[in-house]
Design a protein that fits this description.
Elements: H1 3-16, H2 40-78, H3 83-97, H4 104-117, H5 123-144
Helix pairs in contact: 2-3, 2-5, 3-4
């Protein structure tokens, strides 16, 4: 059930229920500064969850982009590229990852480029390096921001 549907359901329920400050609840009325309303806690938790999800997605995107750059520099070195050529190649790996979800697009690029340049790396080695570089990228983001 989506957030809007849930809010509609809850607001319908609230309309049928007595106010939490009324004597029908058998409790003392809230002070005005404590009165948050029946939806505020739910709304705050929902908003906090949405913010955490967005933050985590942003960090994941940054980590994957940094991983792609690191993998690109690693691959460039193996292919004998350096300086601006290596940087350009690393950027092309980052761009490649934006084409589709997941890591397969980056893997296919690396595999094809290694094959074209005669660089001997197994599929396992490429994927292992991608995993290692992702761990390194996450560590860098956590420690350096």
């Amino acid at each position: 059930m989506g957030g809007a549907a849930m809010r509609l359901l809850i607001s319908s329920y609230e309309a049928a229920m007595p106010s939490p400050n009324s004597d029908k609840w058998g409790c003392f009325p809230l002070d005005s500064d404590e009165e948050l309303g029946p939806m505020s806690t739910f709304d705050k938790r929902e908003k906090d969850f949405e913010n955490k999800f967005a933050h985590d997605a942003e960090l994941r995107f940054k980590a994957e982009a940094r991983r792609d750059k690191l993998v690109g520099l690693w691959a460039a070195e193996l292919m004998g590229l350096s300086g601006d050529e290596a940087d350009a190649y690393a950027k092309s790996v980052v761009v490649e990852d934006l084409k589709e979800a997941g890591d397969d697009d980056v893997f296919r690029k690396l595999r094809a480029d290694f094959d074209a340049k005669g660089v001997e790396q197994s599929d396992h080695q490429i994927r292992r390096t991608m995993d290692e570089m992702l761990a390194k990228a996450i560590d860098e983001i956590k420690n350096k921001g």
